[in-house]
Structure formats: structure tokens, C-alpha cells
């Protein structure tokens, strides 16, 4: 099994088994029909409760740079599954797969984060009822 | 994390305090056997709650005009915390017991003999709580609740300030804690109903940790009303979510 696939399996299993500290149900904020991929430059990280947020600047189809707020689980949950603050480096390019907010804001639930070296992290809030 | 209770060892006796009463202290985690999670109607046929007409109106209001109170850092209180997916921690003394919850909430329940409810208790999210022992069972009788900005569970079901909650806590063995909860709310429910649940003991190094709900609550501006869709199985979420894009192949 390729290393990347092994890592993905390990991290997603860790996410599924990590402590559930869902602050709200997934469906209260996000739209499961709006699965999106955002590729952009990491501009800011807020390693905070009740969720961590990191912000990426991505260029849309019109050539305009748009800032996306990417929401993940609480710091403690992420840290225990190996998603550490130090893995997010300002200026690096990230690929984020997740679901957009129901109200159409540039806010997404960052359920899968791909780092520049190909490492894949799960940002999902375990136990929030969102897609696993 | 919810534990599969079929894999949790049973039979080791519950620890006891110096006074002989069972000690409920521990970090307690939900199990996969509690289903549907977050639904106070879990033990009722079809999870259908016996709502009065006022209760039906209150449910409609919660679903269409309120955001999840916990998502804006309001205390969930009781009964909601007993239906929550979140673990909790108990520390027990000789005259009181403290239940500690994520989001930095706690409740402190006295069980000094002879305690009685006040004539006019100040409304509280956990109510005015009085504990007493009936053998090895700790009974917590609570009245005097808030009637606004509270949901009775994660599905946005309603609860009024008239609710009376009686919890009967036991520790059937070392690795389990159990509650039988009676809920009487004549404003919103036509009859009393019950909710029973067992939690399993966490690992020795697990405990409640620092958690500041209002530190950076970006979601507050994006929350929709209610909990979102309720699935046929009584849980919250979408039935058929769109798949994420396939993982990026490594270079």
C-alpha cells in the first residue's frame, strides 16, 4: 500500500476515534450538497476554540483572489490525531476538500487537508453528523 | 469518541467512598449502544415525544427561529447534557458531587441529608439540584429551570421552565455509570417520559481540558436555525451527502 494511502487511512481512523467535541451539528452550518475543493496559499491560522480556522487565498475562475475560512475541529481533537499547529506554514499551498457554508459565505468545513508534501490530514469535527 | 460497550470489561465491582457509598468519580464516555445519539426521545417508540400543542409550537419555533444555544456558548444544562455526545467527568466528595462538562460548564450537586427545594428558586440551566442517596443510587431532583435559549436535546426539541427532572445515578460496575432520568414538563409534554443511558469509563489519562467556547466563535454568524436535517434514524445530518473530490495523487 502506498505511503500516502497508509497515512490517509491512519489519520482518518484517528479522526473517527478521537474525542467528539462537536460544537454544533455539521448540518447547522454546512451544506452537504456543496462539496468543494479549494487550492490556495495559507495566509493565517487561528488555533482556537471552539474550532481552529485557517485562511487560504485562492484565485477564482475570474482571476480574483478570494480568501476562504477553513474550519476544522477543536485544537485538542486535532492535536491528538496528529494534526499539529506546526504543520500549517504560512505561505505554503494547501488543497482543502470540504463543504461550503449553507449561507454561501466563503467558509468551508475542511474535512480533508492536503499539505505540500502530499500528507493528508483530517480536519473533521468527529461526532458532528457530517460526512465521514 | 464513543466506545463499543460490547468490548468494555464488566463485572469488576464499583469503587466505594470511605462512607461506603459508590464513588462515581471518573471520565465517562458515550457508547455506540446509545442510539440515536443526541435525541431525548431515544427510548420512545419511533422517538416520538408526547408534545402538547404548546410543545409543538415551541419545537417549530426552535427549528425555524433559533440557533443551537450551545453553538453560541450557552449552557446546555439538564436534561440536554445527559443526551449529549460529549464525555463528562465526575468528582465526588462526602457531601456533594460535581459533574464537569466540555465547554467549561459544571454543576455541583449537594446531597447533605434534609435538603429541600426553595420556594422560588432562581431559574438556572441545571435547575435547583438536590441530591439524596437511596441505597447505592444517587437521586438528583431538580426544579427551577430556564425557559428560554434552551433545547432539551441536540435535535432542538423544546423544554420549558416548568420541567421537573429526576435523575437516578448508579455505578453498576467499575467501568460503567448509568442514569435513569424522568422528565415531567406539563407545559410542553402531555405525560412524563423517561430516558436511560449508560456511559463507559475512559482511560486513566483522559480528563476534561481547557476549552473556551467564545474564544473565536466564527460560526455564530453562519449558523442556520435549528440543527439542520433530521435523518429517519433520529440523528442529525444529511442522508446523501455529495462526495468529496478524490484525494490528490502524490507527486
Kindly report the name of the CATH homologous superfamily of chain B: Calycin beta-barrel core domain
Low-confidence stretches of chain B: none
- Largest interface here, residues on each chain? A-B, 51 and 47 residues
* Annotated CATH topology of chain B: Lipocalin
- Derived from helix and strand composition plus strand pairing, the structural class of chain A reads alpha+beta
* Total tally of structural domains of chain A: 1
What's the pLDDT, averaged over the residues of chain B?
A: 95
Number of alpha- plus pi-helical segments of chain A: 3
**What is the approximate shape of chain B?**
globular
**Assembly context of the chains:** heterodimer
Mind sketching the topology for me?
The complex is a heterodimer of chains A (132) and B (251).
Chain A: H1 3-17, H2 26-29, E1 30-46, E2 53-59, E3 65-71, H3 75-80, E4 93-101, E5 107-114, E6 120-122
Parallel strand pairs in A: 3-5
Antiparallel strand pairs in A: 1-2, 1-4, 2-3, 4-5, 5-6
Chain B: E1 26-29, H1 53-65, H2 80-83, E2 88-92, E3 96-101, E4 105-110, E5 128-134, E6 137-143, E7 164-173, E8 176-184, E9 193-201
Antiparallel strand pairs in B: 1-2, 1-9, 2-3, 3-4, 5-6, 6-7, 7-8, 8-9
Short overview:
The complex is a heterodimer of chains A (132) and B (251). Chain A is an alpha+beta fold and 132 residues long.
Describe the structure.
The complex is a heterodimer of chains A (132) and B (251). Chain A is α+β, with helices and mostly antiparallel strands and 132 residues long. Chain A has one domain: OB fold (Dihydrolipoamide Acetyltransferase, E2P). Chain A contains three helices and six strands. Chain A has helices at residues 3-17, 26-29, 75-80; strands spanning 30-46, 53-59, 65-71, 93-101, 107-114, 120-122. Chain A has a five-stranded mixed beta barrel with strand order 1-2-3-5-4. Chain B is mainly beta. Chain B has one domain (5-215): Calycin beta-barrel core domain (Lipocalin), CATH 2.40.128. Chain B contains two helices and nine strands; from the N terminus they run E-H-H-E-E-E-E-E-E-E-E. Chain B has helices at residues 53-65, 80-83, and strands at residues 26-29, 88-92, 96-101, 105-110, 128-134, 137-143, 164-173, 176-184, 193-201. A nine-stranded antiparallel β-sheet of chain B has the order 4-3-2-1-9-8-7-6-5. In chain B, a hairpin with an 8-residue loop joins strand 8 (176-184) and strand 9. Chain B is globular. Chains A and B meet through helix 1, helix 2, strand 1, strand 4 and strand 5 of A and loops of B.
Amino acid at each position: 500500500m502506498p505511503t500516502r494511502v497508509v497515512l490517509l487511512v491512519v489519520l482518518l481512523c484517528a479522526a473517527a476515534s478521537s474525542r467528539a467535541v462537536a460544537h454544533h451539528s455539521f448540518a447547522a452550518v454546512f451544506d452537504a450538497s456543496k462539496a468543494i475543493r479549494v487550492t490556495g496559499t495559507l495566509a493565517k491560522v487561528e488555533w482556537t476554540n471552539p474550532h481552529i480556522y485557517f485562511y487560504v487565498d485562492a484565485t477564482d475562475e475570474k482571476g480574483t483572489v478570494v480568501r476562504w475560512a477553513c474550519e476544522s475541529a477543536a485544537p485538542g481533537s486535532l492535536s491528538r490525531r496528529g494534526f499539529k499547529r506546526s504543520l500549517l506554514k504560512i505561505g505554503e499551498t494547501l488543497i482543502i476538500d470540504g463543504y461550503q457554508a449553507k449561507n454561501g459565505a466563503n467558509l468551508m468545513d475542511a474535512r480533508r487537508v492536503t499539505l505540500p508534501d502530499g500528507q493528508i490530514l483530517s480536519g473533521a469535527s468527529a461526532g458532528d453528523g457530517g460526512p465521514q | 469518541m464513543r466506545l463499543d460497550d460490547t468490548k468494555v470489561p464488566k463485572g469488576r465491582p464499583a469503587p466505594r467512598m470511605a462512607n461506603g457509598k459508590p464513588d462515581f468519580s471518573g471520565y465517562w464516555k458515550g457508547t455506540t449502544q446509545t442510539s440515536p445519539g443526541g435525541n431525548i426521545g431515544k427510548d420512545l417508540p419511533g422517538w416520538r415525544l408526547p408534545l402538547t400543542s404548546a410543545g409543538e409550537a415551541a419545537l417549530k419555533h426552535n427549528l425555524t427561529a433559533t440557533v443551537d444555544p450551545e453553538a453560541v456558548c450557552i449552557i446546555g444544562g439538564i436534561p440536554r447534557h445527559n443526551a449529549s455526545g460529549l464525555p463528562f467527568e465526575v468528582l465526588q466528595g462526602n457531601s456533594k458531587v460535581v459533574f464537569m462538562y466540555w465547554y467549561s460548564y459544571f454543576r455541583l450537586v449537594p446531597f447533605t441529608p434534609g435538603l429541600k427545594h426553595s420556594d422560588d428558586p432562581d431559574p438556572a440551566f441545571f435547575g435547583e439540584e438536590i441530591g439524596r442517596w437511596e441505597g447505592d443510587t444517587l437521586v438528583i431532583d431538580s426544579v427551577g429551570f430556564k425557559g428560554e435559549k434552551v433545547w432539551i436535546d441536540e435535535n432542538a426539541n423544546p423544554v420549558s421552565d416548568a420541567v421537573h427532572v429526576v435523575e437516578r445515578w448508579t455505578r453498576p460496575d467499575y467501568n460503567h455509570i448509568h442514569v435513569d432520568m424522568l422528565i415531567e414538563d406539563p407545559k410542553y409534554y402531555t405525560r412524563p417520559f423517561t430516558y436511560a443511558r449508560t456511559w463507559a469509563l475512559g482511560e486513566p489519562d483522559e480528563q476534561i481540558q481547557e476549552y473556551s467556547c467564545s474564544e473565536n466563535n466564527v460560526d455564530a454568524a453562519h449558523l442556520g436555525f435549528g440543527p439542520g436535517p433530521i435523518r429517519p434514524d433520529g440523528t442529525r445530518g444529511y442522508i446523501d451527502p455529495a462526495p468529496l473530490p478524490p484525494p490528490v495523487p502524490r507527486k
